[in-house]
Amino acid sequence: MAPGGGGLYRDVVESRTALADYGIAPTETDSRNPPSRKSPAVVGGKPGVHELLECPVCRSVMYPPIHQCSSGHTICFNCKTKVHNICPICHQELGNIRCMALEKVAELLELPCRYQFLGCQDIFPYQSRLRHEQNCRFRPYNCPYAGAECSVTGDIRSLVSHLKDDHNVDMHDGSTFNHRYVKSNPQEVENATWMLTVFNCFGHQFCLHFEAFNIGMAPVYMAFLRFMGDDHEAKRFSYSLEVSGGGRKMQWHGVPRSIRDSHKTVRDSLDGLIIQRKLALFFSGGDGQELKLKIAGRIWKEQL
Q1: At what angle do helices 100-108 and 126-135 cross, to 10 degrees?
Q2: What span, in angstroms and rounded, lies between the C-alpha atoms of 45 and 80?
Q3: pLDDT on residue 140
Q4: How many Å apart are CA 141 and CA 139, to the nearest integer?
Q5: Which of 27, 101, 175, 291 could pair with 186 as two cysteines, CB 3.0-4.6 Å apart?
Q6: What 3-state DSSP class applies to 95?
Q7: How, if at all, do strands 153-154 and 141-142 pair?
Q8: Which residues contact 114 (CB under 8 A, 6 or more apart)?
Q9: Pairwise CA distance, residues 220 & 208, whole Å
Q10: Interval 127-183: pLDDT, tens
C-alpha cells in the first residue's frame, strides 16, 4: 500500500526546533591530505586508450571476458546476451570469439573511478577498479522513500530535494519530535506504510519510518530511523523512541541505519521500536476502535 494512499492515514508532527538552519552537510574530505592521483596509463604513446574498452551498447567500461565479431567489433559480456549474440555494429553473429589482445591491453591500464563526476579522484589498476566502485564512498545513494518503487539515485543534496518535491515528504528541523499516527480502523492495517518524515539536525538528515506488517501471524507496528549518509557516519549518532498512553510506556534506544541498507533490510532485521497490535491498542485508549499512537523521539550526536 503506498504511503498516504487514499487518505487512510494521517500523521501529525509536533517538532521542537533545535537547529533552524536547514543545511546539508558537505562531503567530509581532508583538504590537508588530498588523495593522490596517478597519471592514466599511456599505451603506444597515446593517452586515452581506455576509450577502446567502452562497450558500444551500454557505454560502460568492458571487463574480461570481452567478445568480438569476425570483423573485430567488441562488446561486453553482459550486453552480448542482450543483443541476442548479434553484433550491434555490423549485425554479424558474435559467436564465442574472445578479444584476447584487448583484454591484455586492459591489464596495462589504470582507470578513473566511474564516480569521478561525483567527486572521486582516485585512479585504479584495471582489475581492482570494479572492486573499488562497489564500495566507493562517492557512489550514489538510492532514494529512501518506502512503500513505492523509486529508481531515483543521487547524492544526499539531490535526494533531499527529490523527497520534498517529488514525494511531498514532510521536512522538519530539530533533534526532538512528537509524532502521532492515527488510523480509524486498525484491524484493516496490514503491510501499510505511513508517510516518511525527514528531520534535519546536526547538519544531516534522518528518515523516520512507521509501518504495520506481520511477524509470522502476529500483526505489529514498527518505527525506526535511517541516516542519510554512510554507515561510518551513522554510527556517530544515536536516537531514542518512546510510545506512551493508557498509563503505559515503551522505549527504544538505537543507532540509525544508513540508507545504504534498504528499507526492507532494516525492517526485516527488526532494528527499531516494535509494538504488538494488541499493546498498540492499549496505548491508543484500549477501546480498539482507533489507532492513536504518539511517538516521541530524540536524536543526539555521540561524543567519540
Answers
A1: 70
A2: 31
A3: 93
A4: 7
A5: 291
A6: coil
A7: antiparallel
A8: 60, 61, 129, 133
A9: 17
A10: 788 889 888 988 999 999 976 678 899 999 999 999 999 999 999 999 999 988 887
